[in-house]
Each structure stands twice: as C-alpha cells, then as structure tokens.
Amino acid sequence: SLVLSATSFATAKEHIVKVMSGKSNEMRFTPQDITINQGYTVKWINEKSVYHNIRSIKKGTPDGAETLKSTALRKENDSWQYTFKVTGRYDYFCVPHRSMGMIGSITVEDKSLVEDK
User: Fold this and answer.
1) What's the pTM value of the predicted model, to 2 decimals?
2) In terms of CB atoms within 10 Å, which of 1, 55, 65, 94 comes out highest?
3) Under a CB-based contact definition with an 8 Å cutoff, are residues 100 and 25 in contact?
4) What would the pLDDT profile of 32-43 be if each residue is shown by its tens digit?
5) Please, which residues have CB within 8 angstroms of residue 105's CB and are 6 or more apart in sequence?
C-alpha cells in the first residue's frame, strides 16, 4: 500500500489553473487558491483569446523564491508554467484585470510533510 501511495504522488506533479474570462466580463483564475507540494509545477492555460498574464503581488513571494512573471497569454490555449522550489505562499494577479479581482494564490508545502492534494 505504501508503494501505491508513492506512485500516485508521481501522477499529480502538474496542476492546471484555468485563466478564464467569463460572462459579464468576469475575470478569474480557476481554481483561485491551491496547495501543492514543493517541486510541483503549476500550468496556467488561457481559456479564451483575451490577453492575460501572471505576476507576483509585491511582497507576495516567499524569501528566496523567484517572483512570478509569465509570458503574455494572448490566445486560447496559450500557457505558461512554473515549478515551485521554495515553500510558502505565492500571491499573484493578472495585470490588466487585477482591478476586476483576477487574483490567486499557490501555497507550497514541504512534500515530506503533506500528502498529495
């Protein structure tokens, strides 16, 4: 059973966050807040042909970690990914849509202390 558990960890090393433009100009990241294990990757995928990006909120990055600064996601299915090596909370937003509440967070935990989520 322990071996099966370790195998299931390997299958979820990439998490998807949808970059969405909804009805009534609703702009959001889905899911908005996630918790992952250290060393895992988050991939943001643009759901529509609307310009988006991912940027760290000032002081929203753990000490010793790089700030998030994506390439432009201009078209449907454009994507950007980042592998989180430093534990802590990363708060981020979409520059053109921050005032519309397009913000999110990634909490990175020490993989030896937490089960896969």
Assistant:
1) 0.83
2) 94
3) yes
4) 999 999 999 999
5) 32, 33, 34, 60, 89, 90, 91, 92
